[in-house]
Hints:
This protein has 2 helices and 3 strands. It has helices spanning 17-28, 52-67; strands spanning 2-10, 40-47, 73-81.
Amino acid sequence: MLKAKIFVQLKPSVLDPQGKAVSGTLSQLGFDTVQSTRISRYIEIVFAEDDPDILEPKVKEICDTLLANPNTEHYHFEIEKVEES
């Protein structure tokens, strides 16, 4: 089995109101050295697949089709073997 670890982030040019709110709250809490915050998503998907070369285009298609908005977000992913217990 393989696991895809997918990271979806807003493009740098896109405003991040949630990140701005977190930065403001951190500042109010006394974390004065925080300059900015960006909020991202992390998704894990486990596949019944053992060949990363076959899985990579499938994960890309999943990201392009459902998980990331190409107008405002970019993504990257890692594929790793799942250790069975």
